[in-house]
Design goal:
Structural class of chain B: alpha/beta
Helix content of chain A: over 70%
Strand order of the largest sheet of chain A: 1-2
CATH class of chain B: Alpha Beta
CATH architecture of the largest domain in chain A: Orthogonal Bundle
Structural class of chain A: mainly alpha
Shape of chain B: globular
Distance between the termini of chain B: 41 Å
Largest sheet of chain B: 6 strands, mixed
Protein name (chain A): Phosphate transport system permease protein
Helix content of chain B: 25-40%
Strand content of chain A: under 5%
Order of helices and strands of chain A: HHHHHHHEEHHHHHHHHH
Number of strands of chain B: 10
Strand content of chain B: 15-25%
Organism (chain A): Azospirillum doebereinerae
Function (chain A): Part of the binding-protein-dependent transport system for phosphate; probably responsible for the translocation of the substrate across the membrane.
InterPro entries (chain A): MetI-like, MetI-like_sf, Phosphate_PstC, PstC_N
Oligomer: heterodimer
CATH superfamily of chain B: P-loop containing nucleotide triphosphate hydrolases
Radius of gyration of chain B: 18 Å
Radius of gyration of chain A: 32 Å
Largest sheet of chain A: 2 strands, antiparallel
CATH topology of the largest domain in chain A: MetI-like fold
Number of strands of chain A: 2
Subcellular location (chain A): Cell inner membrane; Cell membrane
Chain lengths: 460, 272
């Protein structure tokens, strides 16, 4: 409530500040705007920033520290018999206080001291919010007045405002970077917890994957072994099948679209191909599991082969189809970027169209095509839905595409689906797998980007 | 098919010079349309063997379009239509008996911007001979590469780095590489579309010298914006204006005694 009011007040004050700043700037030179260092609207933004920013800082700072501060004050007022427990008990106590303060039932009879603490917590929070409203509004008014007073013909309002804007831009890009760092760190720490239980050597080079852990000592059949080689092999197998499907078809269609198709055909062919990229992977999953897998099975039986109903082949083929637009669209762009002068040079020597394409255009576009393929590979490795639905869950160490295999992503998905305890190696192994997957796709993308950069240097 | 006998004598070309030199190529009433827009309005030019013909004229006058008709490079441009007769050794190049690909092996082309392929210097030169199957063995190919580079005056500069990419050469060297690449196919005619416009004066002087030497073995048609260059390298000059060929004569005549006032206006720098 108080926070909503504060936000409204701040919004109002910035708008007022903008108007006041603009008016005062114009008035300070008697309406001859050319005599100002910056145009009036920059003066307006300058005052608006002074009105809004300090209060906004306070607000962010307060919201970040409020919970911790109040909780410390509440805990200090509690009797020692409640707060002297181990960290886990303390966390439980904090959760109880918060739940009662927010009116959520804890489901059991609460200690009167805890109920009192919760009431105390509520009071403190109310006081905090009211004072935030008061201090924030004051700060905004003071800021507005300060900014307004500084306005004059010589104020470099544009430079100040632009500096704030550039800081804001930096902050936005930092958000993306910090999020990535945060994801990597959380992955890393959970993975380290996993590697504390299972040795990295066993994980990376073991050939038996069976993540079920025995819950009771007398349970049978759940050994809990974490050799991830079958998963890597399954991922590799399916990726190879996908690339065998996607690279030739994608590349050929790119060559057709950029070199042979007339513009009319091209204008409807390219969007249709790109629709393939817009189909949700779950839908590809249906297609793989319900159409492609039985089809592969029937064909295999006709040929006298034993095909399992969930085969690496069907998942790989469908994944390849999914990746075709990646390869074709990126390659098409790269081939189009090959300068016409190279084609002319080749035609001018009496080369045919196909000679020109094979010996000049494709070699010139090769770095870009390689980069497109690399990106497609990392897409294939990271793909989850199709393989979960069509490739199976059995960790089979095989090179036979007709058998069921499982992939790293499928295992991560199954390990973390449903209610899980986050301290067993079974669940933690998902983070180990995730880390390996991340490192592989990261290095593939880095190589691809490097190749693309090299290519750009050559033709600009 | 031989149409030599049917080719009418040009009204403008060769009127004052005796036709002592045989015509390598002739153009009669050549009209070019890009869609509905007419780019050339009936061009008549004789291209004499072992001479350099310079095409001059203001931008957009159709010089390059005409040049690209001579080896059918315009075929690659959508909705471009060519009418009239262009003959090479008396044979209609747009006739059924001639394939555009084979024609371009006989009428080579060098472009405005140096366009070496992203291959090694050696492979750039060997590209044409390889696709045409002109060299049977490794040694023969080496020989073709060496003589082509020597004739383009590039051999001494690159003989130690034939395996390095052609794109690593300087602009002038790249253009000489492209000329060497064209020579390697042993064409009869070489078309040059402003070959020096992207080069510095020293590289330009190199190329001009080279053109003069190449005249011994090839017939050359060069498009240029630089009138001093036309005067320096060519024996015949044709002046184009707004899709018409205004005047075609010995270079000396054109530059000292132009018959048309538009030609005079252009070469004296009044417009263009």
């Amino acid at each position: 409530m108080q926070i909503t009011v504060l936000v409204l007040i701040l919004a109002l004050l910035t708008v007022i500040g903008f108007q006041m700043g603009r008016t005062r700037a114009a008035a300070s030179v008697g309406g001859r705007v050319v005599e100002l260092h910056s145009v009036p609207s920059y003066h307006g933004f300058y005052v608006a920033l002074w009105a809004g920013l300090p209060a906004l800082f306070l607000f962010v700072l307060w919201t970040a520290s409020e919970g911790w501060l109040i909780m410390q004050m509440v805990l200090a007022s509690l009797p020692a018999r409640l707060t002297s427990g181990d960290p886990q008990a303390l966390n439980l106590l904090k959760a109880d206080i918060l739940n009662i303060a927010h009116g959520i039932s804890t489901g059991r009879e609460s200690d009167p001291d805890v109920v009192a603490a919760a009431q105390h917590y509520g009071t403190l929070r109310d006081i905090g919010d009211w004072s935030l409203l008061a201090v924030g509004s004051c700060l905004a008014v003071v800021g507005l007045a300060y900014g307004h007073r500084r306005i004059g013909p010589d104020l470099r309002a544009r430079n100040r405002v632009e500096r704030v804007v550039s800081v804001a831009l930096i902050v936005c890009s930092l958000v993306a970077i910090l999020t990535t760092v945060g994801i990597v760190l959380s992955l890393l720490f959970e993975a380290l917890r996993f590697f504390a239980v299972v040795s990295p050597l066993e994980f990376l080079f073991g050939t038996h994957w069976s993540p079920q852990m025995a819950m009771r000592a007398d349970q049978v059949g759940s050994s809990g072994s974490f050799g991830a080689i079958p998963l890597f092999a399954g991922t590799l197998l399916i990726t190879v099948i996908a690339m065998v499907v996607a690279v030739p078809i994608g590349l050929m269609s790119a060559i057709y679209m950029s070199e042979y198709a007339n513009p009319a055909v091209r204008t409807w062919l390219k969007p249709i191909l790109e629709i393939l990229a817009g189909i949700p992977t779950v839908v590809y999953g249906f297609f793989a599991a319900l159409t492609m897998a039985p089809f592969v099975r029937v064909i295999g039986q006709d040929l006298g082969l034993d095909v399992s109903s969930e085969s690496a082949l069907s998942a790989g083929i469908v994944m390849g189809v999914m990746i075709i637009p990646f390869v074709s669209s990126l390659s098409d762009d790269v081939i189009n970027a090959v300068p016409q002068s190279l084609r002319d040079g080749s035609y001018g020597l009496g080369a045919t169209k196909s000679e020109t394409i094979r010996q000049v255009v494709v070699p010139a576009a090769l770095p870009g095509i390689v980069a497109a393929i690399m990106l497609a590979v990392s897409r294939a490795i990271g793909e989850t839905m199709i393989v979960t639905m069509a490739a199976g869950l059995t960790a089979n160490l095989t090179a036979n595409p007709l058998e069921a295999v499982t992939t790293v992503t499928t295992q991560i998905a199954t390990l973390l689906v449903g209610d899980q305890e986050f301290d067993s190696p079974k669940t933690l192994s998902a983070f180990g797998l995730g880390l390996v997957l991340f490192l592989v796709t990261l290095s593939l993308n880095m190589v691809a980007l490097r190749v693309v950069q090299k290519y750009r240097e050559k033709y600009d | 098919m031989n149409v030599q006998t049917h080719i009418p004598t040009s009204a403008q070309a060769g009127a004052r010079s005796a036709p002592a030199v045989p015509n390598k190529m002739v153009a009669r009433d050549v009209k070019v349309f890009y869609g509905a827009k007419q780019a050339l309005k009936g061009i008549n030019v004789d291209i004499q063997e072992n001479k350099v013909l310079a095409l001059i004229g203001p931008s957009g006058c159709g010089k390059s379009t005409f040049l690209r008709c001579l080896n059918r490079m315009n075929d690659t441009i959508e909705n471009c239509r060519v009418e009239g007769l262009i003959a090479l050794d008396g044979e209609d190049v747009y006739g059924k008996s001639i394939d555009a690909v084979q024609l371009r092996a006989r009428v080579g082309m060098v472009f405005q911007k140096p366009n070496p392929f992203p291959k090694s210097i050696y492979d750039n030169i060997a590209y044409g001979p390889r696709i045409h199957g002109m060299a049977t063995g490794r040694e023969e190919l080496d020989e073709v590469v060496q003589t082509s580079l020597q004739r383009a005056g590039l051999w001494n500069e690159v003989k130690d780095r034939l395996r390095e990419p052609g794109t690593g050469l300087s602009g002038g060297q790249q253009q000489r590489l492209c000329i060497a690449r064209a020579i390697a196919v042993s064409p009869e005619v070489i078309l040059m579309d402003e070959p020096c416009s992207a080069l510095d004066p020293i590289a330009t002087a190199h190329i001009e010298e080279l053109i003069d030497e190449l005249r011994e073995n090839f017939t050359i048609v060069i498009v240029t914006h630089n009138m001093q260059q036309a005067a320096r390298v060519s024996q015949k000059t044709a002046f184009f204006h707004l899709g018409d060929m205004v005047e075609c004569d010995d270079t000396e005549e054109i530059f000292t005694n132009p018959r048309d006032e538009r030609t005079q206006g252009y070469i004296t720098g009044r417009y263009g």
